[in-house]
Prior knowledge:
Belongs to the MreC family. The chain has helices at residues 2-27, 35-111, 282-291; strands at 115-125, 133-136, 149-151, 156-163, 168-172, 182-186, 195-203, 208-213, 225-228, 240-249, 256-262, 271-277. It is an alpha+beta fold. It is rod-shaped and about 135 Å long.
Amino acid sequence: MSFFRRKRLFTILLSLIILVGLIGFSISERNQLSSVEQFIQDGIGALQQVVLTPVTYVAGVADNIDEMKNLYQENQVLKENLSQYQQKVYEVQELTKENEELAAMLGKSESITDYEPIQASVIARNPDQWFKQVMLNKGEQHGVTKDMAVITAEGMIGKVQSTSQFTSRVLLLNGFDRSNRISVNVDLTDQTEDAKGFILGYNEEKEQLVLEFSDYYDEIPVDEVVFSSGLGGVFPKGLEIGTIEEVTTDQYGLTQVAYIKPSAALEGFNHVIIVDRTMPTIFEVEAEEGSGEE
């Protein structure tokens, strides 16, 4: 047993000596390797390539996955920032629009001299008549009564249809019919007198008001401005309603009819002015004169 142990120990020592010799010989500074060294080096290089290639590939895939995760997170952050930016832009646009509308309404209120203005805001729209009726935040407690005219900075948009103590419902011009007719004047540029007539309703197909003239006029140019005349006893005089787009006759050819484009937009507004005329109508003046009051 001792013989085999000594032989084994001798073999191990001899192997270590040879290995140390090879290592020392390999690291010595020489310009040329031996055949054995070349074989060993080539073998080690091939083994390293076999081992490192998949390791490098896996590491690259892991790096790509991490990079994709980072790009995804950055993309989500950018989307959120873009959404917030778009929301801010929308809010700024809405505030700018509202400020412009309020400024125009203020200027309109200051220019009104013949009637008392009551400023109001839209608080609701009728679901059944979305584009024809709106509800305002002013009512009887604020001096609003039925049939008062309602305007924006661009012109007349309708009239008060009904009231409660603190709100009022407005019928827009596109909901008018013969029962809501408006006495109007047409400012004829080349003539000394205005043309007179009545707004009798709204043509849904043309999206324009229908004006029927009281008399027959030789020439009524398009683009002439239509105003309330104040003779109907309901609306004040001088409220701009629209401009003439087309002049024709009725089906019998006896009555002149014009189609009027409203001056004011009938949707998209948030603030209005309810006008209460302070000047008496011609009917009120005649009634006072007939009563003999001094």
